[in-house]
Amino acid sequence: MARSGARRMLVTGAGGMVGAYVTAVFADWTVELTAGHGGGHKMLDVRDRAAVAAAVDAVRPEVVLHLAAATDVDRCEQEPDWAYANNAIGTENVVLACRASDATAVVVSTAAVFPGDRPEPYVEYDEPGPVNVYGRSKLAAERLAQSLWPRSFVVRAGWMIGGGTADKKFVGKIARLMLGGERLVRAVDDKVGSPVYARDFLVGVRSLLESERYGVYHVVNPGSCSRYEIALAVRDALGRADVDVLRVSSTQFPLPAPRGHEAIRNLKLELLGFPALRPWREALTEYVERELRPALAGGARRT
């Protein structure tokens, strides 16, 4: 894929957690950021095939990084049509536009495509079997990408961390509680997953793009853990030894969508000799110390 001049990338769903790091990781690329809800980016609804085709035709990218997705697991369970429209049809539209313009497609997927019936990490060669609508809609997206366009990467992520002030996921919530003076937080210890720092995830994606070895890959920070272990790591990174972290069962938090274990391993990256990502605890600590804590402290001062 080596070509002269700055390479071009179109990004869908750039308003999310991963999108915040694209321009830094791909600083030497010309990047066009789009999102379904604007937020300072050009609007692009991936459910609209004509709009997607027009956007790709206008940018003429070498790569389309497809981040747009319905990721609210419980809403997906309650509104399956919404889930499939965004995750399956949206991906189909993006991949067809890539095929028409001869662009490489990078489709971001999830560890939730697996049945989650074991704590041991799943690898790329294990059989999928999602237990909720979100996972099934993302598996449908994977299969569409693979069947429609050979120049597709399907990249499965784990428990995504990152975003700074915009971090509304588990790490951000726990950090806000601890920095806000909470002395006791609860975290589930009976489900495990594989965290991945969004910046590191994109570094892995960039390595894949340079390889041209299309296919399905797992890209997470090595290792697996429970939410309880993540909460302990956040506490350590914040220097809040005075906070007690209580182990609780997932049954204490009943939710519409069933969940399983979501630990995965980057087996293909290992076998093919790609550079290893750093362990999850190291990545999490850097994120909390260098990005999240300063961002939250700055937000507190402004208020």
How would you portray this structure in words?
With 303 residues, this protein is of the alpha/beta class. The protein has a domain of 199 residues: NAD(P)-binding Rossmann-like Domain (Rossmann fold, 3-Layer(aba) Sandwich), CATH 3.40.50.720. 41% of the residues lie in helices and 18% in strands. It is built from ten helices and 13 strands. The chain has a seven-stranded parallel beta sheet, with helices on both faces. Strands 7-10 form a two-stranded parallel ribbon. Strand 5, helix 5 and strand 6 form a beta-alpha-beta unit. Helix 2 packs parallel to helix 4, helix 6 packs across helix 8 and helix 8 crosses helix 10. The longest helix is centred in the last third of the chain and has 23 residues. It is globular. The chain starts with 7 loop residues before the first strand and ends with a helix. The model has no long low-confidence stretch (mean pLDDT 95).
